[in-house]
UniProtKB/TrEMBL annotation:
Matches recorded under SUPFAM superfamilies: FMN-binding split barrel
Domain of life, source organism: Bacteria
InterPro entries: DUF447_C (IPR049288), DUF447_N (IPR007386), Split_barrel_FMN-bd (IPR012349), UCP018747 (IPR016733)
Pfam families named among the record's database cross-references: DUF447_C (PF20766), DUF447_N (PF04289)
Name the UniProt record assigns to this protein: DUF447 family protein
Species of provenance: Blastopirellula sediminis
Domain DUF447: 7-123, 133-184
């Protein structure tokens, strides 16, 4: 079966009841019936899932929220209203386009990056996806780069960001510009450490 990476936002719930919003690229089939989550075992998402937290994967075009979640910035002002899935109790971001509440069927934590096989327990559609936009995709790429500041040379990340910048300037709006600048600031701060 063909599998693709779906860039998304995942919500889980901590043992203190706090909602964790994290970007993740699960492997999915084209029909979006099966999801394979691959969180690092050092992540809060893994910690919550390992304790049995419900999990919801969101398809969204809100790159400002995705960027903030990727770099660990506060997402409180960006998340918007949340509801609970009646089937699993997972947290649904009401500003997302679609959501998939998952049931974990297999968890393999034998590697640093766990493999968690999931099936869809419930799903919903909240609004239309904006559509393909180069600036939004550039922010997604920039956010992924920002998550690798401890793995890749900073000058390499900065060079990649500069290649993405024209896409933001030519095809983005205020949200994409803010998200991209937040990522650039984060990388600059990492460089100064």
């Amino acid at each position: 079966m063909e599998r693709l990476v779906l860039e998304s936002l995942v919500t889980t719930i901590g043992d203190d009841g706090a909602v964790n919003v994290a970007p993740m690229g699960p492997l999915v089939d084209r029909a979006l019936t099966q999801f394979t989550l691959r969180p690092f075992q050092t992540s809060r998402t893994f910690e919550n899932l390992h304790r049995g937290s419900p999990v919801v994967v969101h398809v969204t075009d809100d790159v400002e929220l995705l960027a903030a979640a990727a770099i660990g910035a506060s997402t409180a002002a960006l998340v918007g209203p949340m509801t609970r899935c009646a089937v699993t109790g997972g947290v649904i971001l009401q500003n997302a386009c679609r959501w998939y509440a998952l049931k974990v069927v297999k968890l393999d934590d034998s590697q640093d990056r766990a493999t968690i096989e999931c099936e869809v327990a419930a799903s919903g559609r909240l609004r239309d996806f904006f559509g393909l936009n180069r600036a939004k995709h550039a922010v997604v790429e920039a956010a992924i780069l920002a998550t690798r500041v401890d793995l890749l040379p900073i000058p390499e990340i900065e060079a990649d960001l500069e290649q993405l910048r024209p896409l933001i300037q030519k095809t983005g709006g205020a949200a994409e510009t803010r998200a991209f600048q937040q990522i650039c600031d984060y990388v600059a701060a990492a460089k100064a450490r």
